Amino acid sequence: MRATCWMGRHDVRVQNVPDPKILNSRDAIVRVTSTAICGSDLHLYNGYIPTMEKGDILGHEFMGEVVDVAPGVTNLMPGDRVVVPFPIACGACAMCQAELYSCCENSNPNAWIAEKMLGHSPAGCFGYSHMLGGFAGGQAEYVRVPFADVGPLKIPDHLDDEQVLFLSDILPTGYMGAEMCDIQPGDVIAVWGCGPVGQFAIASARMLGAERIIAIDRFPYRLKMAMERAGATDIINYEETNTHEALNEMTGGRGPDACIDAVGMEAHSHGAQYAYDRVKQVAKLETDRPIALREAIRACRNGGTVSVIGVYGGFIDKFPMGSVMNRSLTIRSGQCHVHRYMRPLLERIERGDIDPSFIISHRMKLGDAPEGYSTFLHKEDECMKVVLHT
Amino acid sequence: MNPQTIRPLDRRLAKGLGWFSIGLGVAQLAAPRSVRRLIGLTDGRGVNLTLRAVGAREIASGVAILSMPGRSRPVWARVVGDAIDLGLLGWAMRDICKNRTRLIGAMTAVVGVAALGVFVGKRLGGRNNIVTRTITINRMPEEVRRAWVAFDDRAAEALEYTSFRAAPGGRGTEMVLKLPRHLKITESDLRRFKQVMETGEIVHSDSSIHRGMHAAQPSEGIPL
Question: With an 8 Å Cβ cutoff, is A8 touching chain B?
Answer without folding.
Answer: no
